[in-house]
Amino acid sequence: MNQTKNTLLRDYLSQRRLFTAMAAHNPLAAKLAEEAGFNGIWGSGFELSASYAVPDASILPMGIHLAMMRSIATTVQIPLIADIDTGFGNAVNVSYAIPQYEAAGVSAVVMEDKTFPKDTSLRVAGRQELLRTEEFQGKLEAAVSARRENSFVVIARVEALIAGLGMAEALRRAEAYAEAGADAILIHSKQKTPDEIMSFIQAWSGRKPLVLVPTAYPQLTEAAIAETGKVGIVIYGNHAIRAAVGAMRQVFTRIRQDGGIHNVDAQLPSVQEIITLQGDAQMREIEKKYLR
Q1: From CA 199, how far away is CA 218, in angstroms rounded?
Q2: What is the pLDDT of residue 118?
């Protein structure tokens, strides 16, 4: 099954068809994203950190993220792209991490060129420090070498625009990472319009497909992205946790205002719907076959 998922993602990249991935911080969110029709799941470090109520700053250990990726990969039938931040250390750490993520059912990893510990890219006045290009090339080469199947995808995330180093530096690093063996290049921007990203796309050689995360510039549509012919993946990086926080805050506040659940209960998914999402039908089939 994992090989099939990997091949599906690879096919999208090789054919330059736009692959859409929705963030998830647990298997239920991933299941809902699959139900909605997304091509894949983004195993978001930001969302998982938020679900633990800690900053996205290399605080959660790899084991927690890896366990969640395994649970998500087991739950859905679509490819999972894991956000492994800076790779949990240097090239040695990356060499050990990649086979574990591959064995967990992940189809691709995204690794960024920041120093460890990282700071989230969209934090106002965040600490955005980048590795030397050569050091990150070594980490990418270690990742490519450590994978057991060539269908497993390694994506390099370029943070030069986030760090304010300019377009020329972003393009230089992207080319260097492609040279090191990255299968795709994620170019990140925190500008409120897509102009910076579109300029990068126009200047990009096209030697490897690009990956976009349009969190800061939501007006850029999938149709416009596909028209560039250079983008392979679009990731919606934090919408599951934002939707969950907004909905819970609204419902919890209403219950306290009303002094009970009498007004909100009818607006919520039924308990039976949740039981269905939990896979109750499959459990009943197992009971019929094997409980004696």
Answers
A1: 16
A2: 80
